[in-house]
Design a protein that fits this description.
alpha+beta; binds biotin; five-stranded antiparallel β-sheet; seven-stranded mixed β-sheet; 253 residues; 12 strands; SH3 type barrels; 34% strand
């Protein structure tokens, strides 16, 4: 088998959108090819995981969504988010940062969030499309007050302002690399391995995971083949498999 064909990127830059994910999902439903990238200078209704808002002031971040049409067993679809996390990690590392990934999709620098990933699916005439939406903070200048305490940005960490175009190009190249790894032979295991070596959260971390009304506390113990987080729970010393939720690091007692 030869090398996989290079991904065909087409990037559309918008001035303002509600959400680049909404636009990309719409384009996917209309039949857009894999590799379509939507970027906006500003989002008026940027969204995050679990129904949260993603603050998206003008020119303060990269607001990026890519359409994928993966031929992947459905049980491995969650690994697309992890592959995207690795791509963001690589992109930030190439700018001189030392990021960490908090399960499942928060990219942190010095314990503060610099990037988030929201993958959403659309059923289309051409099969299931996955839209991977990525926000990366470029500057902290216009951070809303409540975010300033818990977030950071490329400029805040390096003193340098990168251009949206350059950042989008580097990120797209890294997404291509890890998406192709995911779709290749042994791809799911490779992505789990690549993700795990970039995350201090993957094992031995005392965490609390909240998912709706459910709360699990314990020590992380690696990932399942589909990217779910294993936690050795404090109370009954059982292994909990976390498919979704919000992870918070706890201080060791
Ligand atoms: C999270 O950490 O909760 C995920 C945040 C994802 C934000 C990005 S910005 C580009 C794309 N468009 C959106 O509305 N959301 C994603």
């Amino acid at each position: 088998m030869g090398a996989p064909a290079a991904m065909n990127f087409q990037t559309i830059f918008f001035d303002v959108l509600g959400s680049t994910n909404t636009e990309a999902l719409e384009q996917a439903r209309r039949g857009a090819d894999e590799g379509l990238i939507i970027v906006a200078r500003e989002q008026t209704a940027g969204r995050g995981r679990l129904g949260r808002k993603w603050a998206s002031p003008r020119d303060a971040g990269l607001y990026f969504s890519i359409v994928l049409r993966p031929s992947l067993e459905p049980r491995f679809l969650p690994l697309i988010t992890l592959a995207a996390g690795v791509a963001v990690h690589e992109t930030l590392t190439s700018l001189g940062l030392s990021p960490d990934i908090k399960w499942v999709n928060d990219v942190l620098v010095h314990g503060r969030k610099i990037s988030g990933i929201l993958a959403e699916t659309a059923e289309t005439n051409r099969g299931t499309a996955v839209v991977v939406g990525i926000g990366i903070n470029i500057t902290s200048e216009n951070f809303p007050e409540e975010i300033a305490k818990i977030a950071t940005s490329i400029e805040g960490e390096t003193g340098r302002r990168v251009s949206v175009e350059d950042l989008a190009k580097t990120l797209a190249g890294n997404i291509e690399t890890y998406y192709e790894i995911l779709l290749g032979a042994g791809g799911p295991q490779c992505v789990v391995k690549e993700w795990s070596c970039r995350s201090t959260y993957v094992s031995g971390k005392h965490v609390r995971v909240t998912a709706g009304n459910e709360m699990t506390e314990g020590i992380t113990e690696g990932l399942e083949p589909n990217g779910a987080l294993r936690i050795r729970t404090n109370d009954v010393n059982a292994l909990a498999i976390i498919q979704t939720g919000d992870v918070q690091a706890l201080r060791d007692r």
